[in-house]
Design goal:
It is elongated and about 80 Å long. The longest helix is centred in the middle third of the chain and has 18 residues. With about 350 residues, it is an alpha+beta fold. Strands 6-7-8-3-9-10 form a 6-stranded mixed β-sheet, with helices on both faces. A 5-stranded antiparallel β-sheet has the order 13-12-11-14-20. It has a 5-stranded antiparallel β-sheet with strand order 15-19-16-17-18, with no helix packed on it. It folds into 2 domains: about 220 residues, Rossmann fold, CATH 3.40.50; about 120 residues, Nucleic acid-binding proteins (OB fold (Dihydrolipoamide Acetyltransferase, E2P)). It starts with a strand and ends with a strand. It binds adenosine-5'-diphosphate (ADP) and magnesium ion. Magnesium ion binds next to helix 1. This is ABC transporter ATP-binding protein. Keywords: ATP-binding, Nucleotide-binding, Transport. InterPro entries: AAA+_ATPase, ABC_SmlMolc_Importer, ABC_transporter-like_ATP-bd, ABC_transporter-like_CS, Mo/tungstate-bd_C_term_dom, P-loop_NTPase. It comes from Paenibacillus chitinolyticus.
């Protein structure tokens, strides 16, 4: 197990920003994920850690070793590429063995290690199959075995599930997590899929346009997004713009631009959000934190009466898109026994004060 440190790392391509000022400290054995939309700099950052790109600025440390300009084959990282980069005409065994042969290990040693790696990814007995005779999921596991067989200090995975269909993606996600826990290997995982990032990671780094937005546990990122981008990229959120109208004890009252008053707690503000009378803020509320209000609650704080625009039943929840005056609202009521309301019906929502979050 080894720690990985990026010290103010930047990479430019002919003067254009790849990534800027990435500063992270990944713990030994941690599952750390780079998350963001296409083009935000995830692969660039991963490639610098693997040694395929050198930074324009900054320093990369593996434990006590400065590896900033160390060539890839001297870093002992195992990498899985998005397209797997397997040799299609070679067998499973030959593909997995490749890295060991390059390292000039003995035949007996190679046999032993490849057999173990095949077991690890549940491909025992597949050694003689050619890659082009395998399914996408099996190919993905060969790529994983090939990365692991060299016993790397760090496992690097660049969108390893993106070529799989939805069901297989979920299975393989659990499989990768199991392997990582079993081996205790420091793992850096790249994805644009927030559900993948949330379910697998110890910590997530959210990126946009080459700039780090937030680093935190899935819990932090979900419940305490630092800005509007993070709030909207991770899960669904109601994002309402407004102005601070009143501050009273622990409470903050924001008048949205559609003239609805929302109360929240001053403690639930992102570090970038300055709460002061008259300041403009964005209010973020998760749809699943909203519940249906009882008739007796009407007129109370954070009880929003409106009309249904759209409703859907998903099996686990009833989801609403509704309007409170001109304020759009998304709500998700989870659990059995929800009475479904349809288009144009009246509905009242209760927004719990403690689930109101202020960003920017
Ligand atoms: N080899 C390269 N040459 C020039 N620009 C590049 C190169 N690799 C990446 N970039 C640019 O750097 C930015 C980040 O790209 P990348 O790291 O591949 O994003 P992601 O993996 O998050 O989709 C993009 O604007 C991309 O066009
Ligand atoms: Mg990429």
């Amino acid at each position: 197990m080894i720690e990985v440190k990026l010290d103010k790392v930047s990479k430019q391509f002919n003067g254009a920003r790849g990534v800027e000022n990435v500063d992270i400290h990944i713990q030994p054995g941690e599952f750390f994920t780079f998350l963001g939309p296409s083009g935000c700099g995830k692969t660039t950052t991963l490639r610098m850690i693997a040694g395929f790109y050198y930074p324009t600025e900054g320093r990369i440390m593996f434990g006590e070793n400065n590896v900033t300009y160390t060539p890839p084959n001297k870093r002992n990282t195992g990498m899985v590429f998005q397209n797997y980069a397997l040799f299609p005409h070679m067998t499973v065994f030959e593909n997995i063995a490749f890295g060991l042969q390059v390292r000039k290990q003995s035949k007996a040693e190679i046999m032993d290690k490849v057999t173990r790696a095949q077991k690890l990814v549940h491909l025992d007995g597949y050694g003689d199959r050619r890659i082009d005779q395998l399914s996408g999921g099996q190919q993905q596991r060969v790529a994983l075995a090939r990365a692991l067989v060299i016993e790397p200090n760090i496992l690097l995975l660049d969108e390893p599930l993106s070529n799989l269909d939805a069901k297989l993606r979920e299975e393989t996600r659990l499989e990768i997590k199991r392997l990582q826990l079993e081996l205790g290997i420091t793992t850096i995982y790249v994805t644009h899929d927030q559900a993948e990032a949330m379910s697998m990671s110890d910590r997530i780094m959210v990126m946009k346009d080459g700039i780090v937005q937030q680093i935190g546990t899935p819990h932090d990122i979900y419940n305490r997004p630092v800005n509007r981008f993070v709030a909207s990229f991770i899960g669904e959120s109601n994002l309402w713009e407004g102005t601070v109208e009143r501050m009273e004890g622990d409470s903050v009252y924001v008048r949205t631009s559609s003239d609805v008053l929302i109360a929240g707690l001053a403690a639930n503000a992102s570090p970038e959000c300055r709460l002061a009378l008259g300041s403009k803020v964005t209010v973020s509320v998760r749809p699943e934190s909203i519940r249906e209000a009882a008739a007796s609650e009407r007129g109370l704080e954070n009880i929003l009466a409106g009309k249904v625009l759209m409703s859907e039943f998903t099996g686990v929840s009833v989801n609403y898109v509704a309007q409170v005056g001109t304020l759009p609202i998304k709500a998700m009521f989870i659990g059995p026994g929800q009475r479904m309301r349809h288009r144009d019906e009246d509905i009242a929502f209760a927004v719990p004060k403690e689930s109101v979050y202020f960003v920017e």
